[in-house]
Amino acid sequence: MDGVELLQELVRIPSPNPPGDTRDIANFVAERMRAIGCDVRQPSPAAKPEALNTIAVLGAGEPRIMLHAHIDTVPIAATEAQKWSVDPYAGAIHDGALYGKGSIDDKAVLASMMLAMMEASEQAALQGTLVLVAAAEEEVGGQLGTKWLADARRLPACDFIIVGEQTGNKVATAHKGVLRATVRTSGVSVHATNPDRGVNAIVAMSKIVAALDLYHRDLARLIHPVVGVPTCNIGVIAGGSTANAVPDACAINLDRRMIPGEDPEDVKAELQSVIEAVDVAPASAAIGDFVYSRWFDSGLSTKHARTFMDCVRGQLDEEPGPIGYLPGSDAKHLMDLARGDMIIFGPGSYEVAHAADEHVRLADYEATTAILLDFLRRTLY
């Protein structure tokens, strides 16, 4: 099948999340994979049955190679819709690029993986097993997508896993984890005519903000070779109701990025220590509502990884990495299924994703497909 036409068909199937209804695109992938002889399953969680996944399998035995891409996209925001220069669901081509919502994140690499499955199906026999996972729910954290699939044992352990994301066709071996939390300060509200009778929760929070900024700067002493340093960002602050009253409550939302190797329990304790060390009396302060998303880290020590790196070198004529992938991915949910190495790989940059006029350069897309085909030829047939 023509690769450009396949990608256009994928882009023309909207799959925004929210709401996260992936039935149409999951069924499209399933139909194409059944047509080439794959064993196809389409599980979905009872908590969200419309978050349909497609798992297609070719061959049998060892080694097992997994190709993973997500089928949901971010929605088109009202302000974004006005900025598109083309129909975001038409798959229009201009100046060597294919435009559309999800074109780079994540349908281009999905199309490359589907093309790789199609070529593999034409072989007399595979020397191993090839698994395609078209997963729902990645854009909202993967809890009811890849994590659910892994926890429910719907996915096999594999010797090499390729997670499709936007790496400029370089090989990424790590991304950061995320710990989010809320800090709240409490005071006493009085009329602003005599504010000293009250306890200003915003003033108390300002001391905590300053302490967290110092904490963020101190984190620069910790360095991971491909993803850099951990960070702590204050993304939201809310407090008070009117200028003529002393606010009795204030809250901030934190985003603490963890480099591979950091223990989230240790990070929680660090944040609690930072808050407790700040003297906000007579106000009070507390931190809670912790939400954790796992980091991902892998090596490049197996023969499959070395082969893949050679395939990238051959196509791009430059060093393939390793690099770090700054956004998160579903790789974090697959770490326990990786019997060997796992990489993040795909065309283009995440910087054009989640925005108006999202696009993929066709030359990059074709290079992704060529690399995957070369790798499978060297590995499974």
Describe the fold and architecture.
The protein is elongated, with a radius of gyration of 24 Å. Helix 1 packs across helix 4, helix 4 runs parallel beside helix 9 and helix 8 packs antiparallel against helix 9. It folds into two domains: 258 residues, Zn peptidases (Aminopeptidase), CATH 3.40.630.10; 117 residues, Alpha-Beta Plaits, CATH 3.30.70. The mean pLDDT is 97. Strands 1-2-6-3-7-15 form a six-stranded mixed beta sheet, with helices on one face. The protein has nine helices and 16 strands. The chain has 381 residues and is of the alpha/beta class. The longest helix is centred in the first third of the chain and has 19 residues.
Number of helices: 9
> Which structural class matches the secondary elements?
alpha/beta
Taking the sheet with the most strands, its summary is: 6 strands, mixed
Task: Summarize model confidence as the mean pLDDT.
Answer: 97
What fraction strand? 15-25%
Shape: elongated
